[in-house]
Amino acid sequence: MDFTFIPLAFGQLLSPQTIGFALAALGLAVHFGFGGLLNFGQAGFMSVGGYFFAITAVKFGFPFWLSLVAAIIGAVIFAFILGIPTLRLRADYLSIVTIAAAEIVRYTVQTPQIAPFTGGSDGINGSSAAFDALNPIPPGRYGIAPLLYSASDLWIIICGWGAVLVLGLLVWQLMRSPWGRVIKGIREDEDAVRSLGKNVYAYKMQALILGGVLGALGAVVAIIPTSLQPENFGTQTTFFLFTIILLGGATTVLGPIIGSIIFWVVLSLSDGILSILVTNHIVPLSTVQQGPIRFIIVGVALMLLVIFRPQGILGKKRETYFSV
Amino acid sequence: MSDQSATTDVNVNVNDAKQIYIGDVGPGVKKRDPILIADSVTRTFGGNTAVNVEHVEIPRNMITALIGPNGAGKTTFFNLLTGFDKPNSGNWTYDGQKLAGVPAFKVARRGMVRTFQLTKSLALLSVMENMRLGATKQKGENIFRAMLPFLWRDQEKANTAKAMELLGRFKLDTKKDDYAASLSGGQRKLLEMARALMSDPDLVMLDEPMAGVNPALTQSLLGHILGLKDQGMTVLFVEHDMHMVQTIADWVIVMAEGKIVAEGYPSVVMQDQAVIDAYLGAHHDVDLGTLTGQLAVAEDIDPHLVEELREEVSADPELAEELAEEQNRTEQ
């Protein structure tokens, strides 16, 4: 039997995909966990950020920092488009609009008419060139087999986790400031906050923008070592993100980060284990069934988690005593 | 402010502090020193007119009670004045400034702060965080300054001290680190009122502050409301508890079917036939725990009921004795 999947699964601990989802989940925690904004289109923010980054980098040849700024601007514009009509309405409307908007983005970028620009359904390759040009690490192989990293792998991992650290600290600081208090107050009852003289609409918009920008930056980290694929930003991605924040604790800063690590390690491990069980005919499943089965396992695990530990791994137990 | 000029150019005896109104008492009477003046405010829901107030003035530094039967439009009127609902027509000024069409959060910033009939405590914030949220002009509430704690730390300390002082007054200081969700209904009413006071308002609008509060707490709440007046605030409250209205209100405004039907001093308004008919009911001061009280009410409802009651009393010697005793007492 081949057990290399075990170290490879633990490679997910550091992988850019984990980083990308950690950042996007942190953004979703700002929306949903802290601000009570039911955003079902975080994948849309990721997608917009990814496309703004990749298009400016590949098609216009922007330097890395400028492309990064473009990704942020894209997320801000997207937040305004979604927020202006819906943030004055009840929370449910935002969720409907966001889930639809994320799908609109995913289908729009694949239309053949704008394919020269967006790469159609093939997506965009090579957006990492400008980023790799900044890499100070000498070429070579780093790490212990089978976990070997190239210089560019190592570069994105270091920068990615650096970004998680900085942005995590930023969100942590914001949430313990008076600004964060207003945001949490809005989650509890926005009319009460309004009656205390706070411009609720402006605060909700700020939270939507902040979380959206985190999603866009997450997408940038995730696409740099691979390529931009429109199908990676479907509704499934949003639900992965919700799984991650519920797993880690939606009203914490570390929760989404730890949640993302656990999610990807467990998903990878379960895939490896199932693969061994299937190829050795220990369980009566075909290799075709193997893929969906692991998501069934993830789903069951999430249900058990929500039933027995609704506050997530890092959330405070006493918060759930009063949940309605 | 304009209140000084308003008082000097009318010919009234300004030395008489008890004199609240000018001219004849009646719905929409002019006040000597109004803080809030509303004109032809209407709000309809479909074909149903919820509020239709022609003219009303709220006297400054007084406690005004807004009473009326259920569905009279009291809470809707509250919502309109505070910007939580938009009127179909109408104008109102607060401290001489036009306030119609101003959004709710700006109304609060101008010093007119309200509480809600259904208490809105922020459940998963601690009592202290609830209080701090009430403070206005916080530097740290700007997203960019929020990232730099040294810009707002001192202000936060001052707000915390102020909150502790208020919590102490409302007997909530021992609960400061608990979630607001863990408080009882009455304590949440207290918290909501204390939180509103964090903003140093000029006009406090309380929507049924006594609903669901036990008698002992009612007493202390009454004291707090009277205290607000002593500190120079104006209070406007909606309440069904007539005892409270009689005890603390300086002025009473009665609403029915969206209109102001009566105004006046509490003791006078309670005797007004229109108020008794619309709201209090003919036997509002009758104790239904006594036999004489029950007989008096029964007389109004159905003569047969009186006969039945009398038969019941005569059949039971104990009850007959009780009735005789009660009648003796009332005669004395």
TrEMBL record, chain A:
It is a multi-pass membrane protein. Its main location: membrane. CDD domains: TM_PBP1_LivM_like. The chain crosses the membrane at residues 62-84, 154-175, 207-227, 233-254, 261-279, 291-308. It is found in: Cell membrane. This is Branched-chain amino acid ABC transporter permease. Keywords: Cell membrane, Membrane, Transmembrane, Transmembrane helix. It comes from Subtercola vilae. One of its GO terms (molecular function) is branched-chain amino acid transmembrane transporter activity. GO terms for cellular component: plasma membrane. Pfam families: BPD_transp_2. It comes from the Bacteria.
